[in-house]
Amino acid sequence: MPLKGDFYITKVPILDNHQRIYGYYLTIKDQEDKPVSVNTLADLLVNVNIEKIAGNYPVFLKVDPEVLKHDIIDYLPESKIIFLIDPEQINEHDIEIIKELKKIGFRFAFNYSGKFESIKNIADYFFVKDSQIDPHIYPLKNKVVITDLLSSDDYRAYLNEGFRYFKGDFIFKPSTVVEKKIDPSKLIIMELFTKVRESFNPKEIEEIIKRNPDLSISLLKYVNSAAFSFRNKITSIRHAISILGQRNLLQWLLLFMYRAGEDEAYAETLLEVSAERGKTMEILAQELNLSDENVEKAFLVGILSLVDKLLGIKPEDLVRELNLDEEIVNAIVKKEGILGKLLNIVEKTEEGKIADIADTIKQLGLTLNDVMSAQLKAFAWFEEVNLV
Predict the structure, then answer these.
(1) How many helices and strands in the chain, by DSSP H and E?
(2) Average pLDDT value over all residues in the chain
């Protein structure tokens, strides 16, 4: 049962044909596939800053057609919002309103239905379930968001057919792993990660980083980013290491791992999601008054939860390569312990399956407001961190 009385949202990624995040599908409270009413939308605007949630991306928001006729629309950023409408719920008058709103910059997506022809010429996007793909859809491939995709194989098949936008559990679910060697550039990072975590020797760490120009540049950008706001710019590797300390260095190394390698586009997607997972878990661990060590572990669990997809190796092999302790291993591989429960919370929240974790949230003594607050802080943190 969903928890009542709390305000919460979910932000589900939509990928493009380059495996980059194109935008997010936003749901509010326990609405999931129900259209958002004027009152619920007002609740959203009171509680959160949509532009902060969206970051650099647009958000798709399924709304009741009455929203389009209400003054509340004046408070929505037209460059960020893409309204998702059920064509069965609109009439000719609504279509004229939509045409006027399009003139000022709003975009519109429609669920694929029997009323397809009446809105075909005003639609910017169509949401089409995997099971609904038919010959009428193929001429509109550039506008179609295929939803309910469950496997990476289906995703690749539609990619080969020329479709451009995708939503579904396939994005972060485990895929079939073909055993392969880890990219040498990532091996360096993993070895450095182990050295930083087990024997924090700044001089030795500095020597390794200096031998790798990409690491040196990234470290200086990271330490000088808005997330830290140091009074003076840091200009040397040694100074950066000393001022960041062990914990922040570990965070930077894991984030940088997503930047190194062949499939840069997909890595960008995994980087954003895993970074926000890690930060959300860190904040929730602090909310639970866990020890400093476990707060650090919470971040590590979140950030490492997608590295197996990035590297193409099994999670069990990954945690062995990094020589992680049993608590972290069990959280990532088995979802066990308090860290495993926190990981399950952030994963289900990403998928929009709030009802599945309501009991877990209560058991931990948290509220949905705690989870949402942590997520919003994590979104803002990621925007401030310079990882280029």
Answers:
(1) 17, 8
(2) 82
Structure letter (DSSP) for residue 7: -
Q: What is the rounded CA–CA span in Å between residue 87 and residue 95? A: 9
* Residue written as token pair 């997506």: 109
Q: Quick check: 317 and 348 in contact, CB under 8 A? A: no
Distance CA 315, CA 313 (A): 6
Distance CA 294, CA 94 (A): 53
Reported as a single tens digit per residue, the pLDDT across 34-72 is: 788 898 888 878 777 777 777 778 999 999 999 999 999
pLDDT score for 175: 47
The C-alpha atoms of residue 160 and residue 115 are separated, in whole angstroms, by: 28
Determine the Cα–Cα distance for residues 214 and 128; give it in Å rounded to an integer: 42
Neighbour count for residue 276 (Cβ, 10 Å) = 23
pLDDT at 262: 52
Domains in the chain with CATH codes: 9-171 (3.20.20.450), 184-384 (1.10.3210.10)
- Given a contact cutoff of 8 angstroms between Cβ atoms, the answer to whether 126 and 144 are in contact is yes
Structure tokens at 173: 């679910």
Tell me the pairing of strands 144-147 and 81-85: unpaired
pLDDT tens-digit map of 86-119? 999 999 999 999 999 999 999 999 999 878 788 8
CB atoms inside a 10 Å sphere around CB 193: 23
Per residue in 177-209, pLDDT tens? 444 455 656 777 877 887 887 778 888 888 888
- Helix crossing, 264-287 with 292-304: angle to 10°? 150
